[in-house]
Structure formats: C-alpha cells, structure tokens
Amino acid sequence: MSTPDLPDPSASSDLPDPSDPPTLLFVGGARAVPISTAMVGEALDQARALGIRTHVVNQAAVLAATPQISAAADAVSAVDFTQPDQTVAWARDREAEGERFDAVFALQEMAQVSVAEVADALGVAGNPPDAVRRIRTKDQCRIALAAAGFPQPAVRLCADADAAEEFLAESAGPWVVKPRDAMGSIGVSLVRGAADLPAAIEALPSDAPFLVEEFVEGPEYSVEGVFLNGEPRVLAITAKEKAPPPFFVEVGHVLPAELPENERHEIVAHVCAALSTLELRAGAFHVELWRTVDGIVLGEVHGRFGGDWIHTMLQYAVPGLDVFGLVFDDLLGRNDGAQRALKPTRGAAVRYLIPPPGRVTAVEGWDDLLAHPAVLHAQLLIGPGDDIKPLRQSSDRVGFVVVGADDATLARKLADELVETVRFVVQDAAADRLPGLWSLT
C-alpha cells in the first residue's frame, strides 16, 4: 500500500486552500462599456487563477447589460453600490447568513466609497472611509493637500455663475470649470474670462454646485501603483496627451513616461508622500499631476487603477505582472508581491482615433492596423452610417490602438504611425483625413 502524501510543514501558510477558497466581494462590477468589461473580465480571471472565489454586486440593469461578467463570477447579486449604506447592510446580511468576504475591491470610481465602508464594517483590509470620501470630493482633496504643504491651484466650489464670476475676479486665470464629482472629462472646460462662463456652465452634466480652479500649465502625467503591506508602490509613470482646450479629453498615453531618472524619483517621492498624507493604504492608485516651471503640482487622486487601457500597457511593460492579482494577494495578506522587482522593462502606448465630425461613409486601413505585430489591443467603435460627434468628452472617442515595443520611444512612434494609416471618409466634414495628434483643432 502506498503512503499518502503528507503536508509539507515548511510550505507557506499563505498558499490558498482549494477546499476553502477566500472570497472577494467585487463591488460595482463593470459598466456596460468596452474598457470596463475588459478590465473586470481580466480581474476576475486573475482572481480565479489565484484560487479566489468572486461575488460581483452591481445594479440590476447593469448586470443584465453585462452578462459576460456575471458568467465569469462565482456569484452575482443586484445591489445599488452607489448607496454605501445599502451596500453595507447587504454585506452584513450575507455575513449573518454564513457567507464570508475576505476582501473587498472595485474598479469603478463611483464604487470606491462603498468598498471602504464595507471593508470597514466587515473588518477586512481597506482604506479609511473618510479618506476615500476626501479624495472623491475634488475640492476637499485639494484643501487637504494644500494644508499639508503640497502646491495646489486655487479652487472654489460655486453654486452659480455669480459665485464663479466672483472667484474669477479674485484669482489668476485662465481657469477650469468642472463637476465636483464626475469622470471621463465630462463637463470640463477652459475659461479665459467671465464671457466664457455661460457656455462652460451649460456644458456641466447637472445643476449641482461645480468647481472653478486655476488652470495649471505644464506637461501632464499620471502615476500608477498599488499598496503593498500598506505602503504605496509605484509601478510606472504615464505621459498623458490631451486634445487642445477648451476641452481636456485624453487622446494618448505613453508608459513609462520618457523622463530623466532624477525627475522620475522626484515624482515618485512626491506622490508617495501625498498618498501618505491622504491616509490611503490599500488597493490601487492613479494620481494625476503636472510638471510646471515651479515644480510638481498634484491633480486628482484616485484610489483605483487608471482607465484608457493603462492596465494593458502596465502588464506589457512589466513582464509577468498580473496587476489585479497583485492587489488581491495583498488584500488577503499574501504579500509576495512586496518582494518582487516591479519596474517597466518595455514600453507601451495608446492612441485614440480622432476623425472630424460628420457621418461616416467608410473606414479604410483598419484591418491592416489590426494585423500589425506590435498591436496589443485595438477597437473601432463606429462604422458606416454612424455619426462622429465633436470631441468634448472621453465617450466621443471612436476607437483606439494599444501597442507594445522594446521601449517607450518606439511604442509612441509606432502608435502615431498606426493611427495615421486609418482613413475615415466622412460626409459633411471639411476633411476626411484623420488629423495628426498635434494638429487637432
């Protein structure tokens, strides 16, 4: 008779037990848009590979619109995650019924407060709810950073045009008008004087109080990272490219940013100090900033991964990185990632297609673009008969290409060249040629 295999007493206790897998509560699941379903799908795949059970909660209508996410999860429940109190009550009820949640996570911006509240209520790893509310409220985040000595643009919460005009009279322009709580460049406009205010206020998504802040001049970057053992770990710095004002839609990214090492170290130190000041300690982060003639000025701080396919670029630039799994392991106290070398050794770039407005009659060159060996991912969101809107917010972009290369310089060059090979034939437009990135008007 053979002797059964006995457990190795030297084996790590952090290894998952397949007979009792940890459960990840995935709050908010995916929005019914390609970038969101792709990110959440990858996150669920990485959780499964780590032996983690997943329970996705989302609004009932969105669950119905994202069946691929429901199919990939181990369990699904209809919960309005935009209501933190309801989400906490649901989680407590499930716990009382015997379900155990070992970690709580979200990719959606609007789910971050519920994640913090549920983690706090269940006693699992997470960020302090007050800290998450602070960074979700853009003006409060600026006030907290300024009080700690971080340079910040002057900002004012305004209830109406009169309050905005008063702020313009007291501060240096130009200015940016934007919602207090939104994403995707929705309702963000440049204002050069009081005459521009009516149009900027009209572009806001609601009648809620809005922000007016001083415009910051300088190249813009974002810093991508995760928390490991409670400490921020920067994975890469991304160079951001935007369409010209008056709107601020992102049209491309390059990762890692092509920066001298001393500037990279300065940015990393600045961002890590800010995250500590804001009392963030778990999950992921995506921090925007400008390099100005006077130094680094922090923009918005997010307790989540960046969008715009940054996760795809990260996982190419850092070979072997499963970026969502890295966070899941940390939330569960399985911290092997803290010992890994997590630095980009390759480059990646994303470029968005920005054709002129009008009705599409044909798109030429797309199949050739897809066949290029450097393409990591690409998607065309329009076709003949569709209308191209003027570029005002992220949802107006009609397609993109993500490329990978040996370094960031080559990736940027390849992405620029590939988007120029796609030709949109557009009715009722001044030109039917895709404009170059630097000639957008």
Automatic annotation (TrEMBL):
<dbReference type="InterPro" id="IPR040570">
    <property type="entry name" value="LAL_C2"/>
</dbReference>
<feature type="region of interest" description="Disordered">
    <location>
        <begin position="1"/>
        <end position="21"/>
    </location>
</feature>
<protein>
    <recommendedName>
        <fullName>ATP-grasp domain-containing protein</fullName>
    </recommendedName>
</protein>
<dbReference type="Pfam" id="PF18130">
    <property type="entry name" value="ATPgrasp_N"/>
</dbReference>
<feature type="compositionally biased region" description="Low complexity">
    <location>
        <begin position="1"/>
        <end position="16"/>
    </location>
</feature>
<dbReference type="InterPro" id="IPR041472">
    <property type="entry name" value="BL00235/CARNS1_N"/>
</dbReference>
<dbReference type="InterPro" id="IPR011761">
    <property type="entry name" value="ATP-grasp"/>
</dbReference>
<keyword id="KW-0067">ATP-binding</keyword>
<dbReference type="InterPro" id="IPR052032">
    <property type="entry name" value="ATP-dep_AA_Ligase"/>
</dbReference>
<dbReference type="Pfam" id="PF18603">
    <property type="entry name" value="LAL_C2"/>
</dbReference>
<feature type="domain" description="ATP-grasp">
    <location>
        <begin position="142"/>
        <end position="332"/>
    </location>
</feature>
<keyword id="KW-0436">Ligase</keyword>
<keyword id="KW-0547">Nucleotide-binding</keyword>
<dbReference type="Pfam" id="PF13535">
    <property type="entry name" value="ATP-grasp_4"/>
</dbReference>
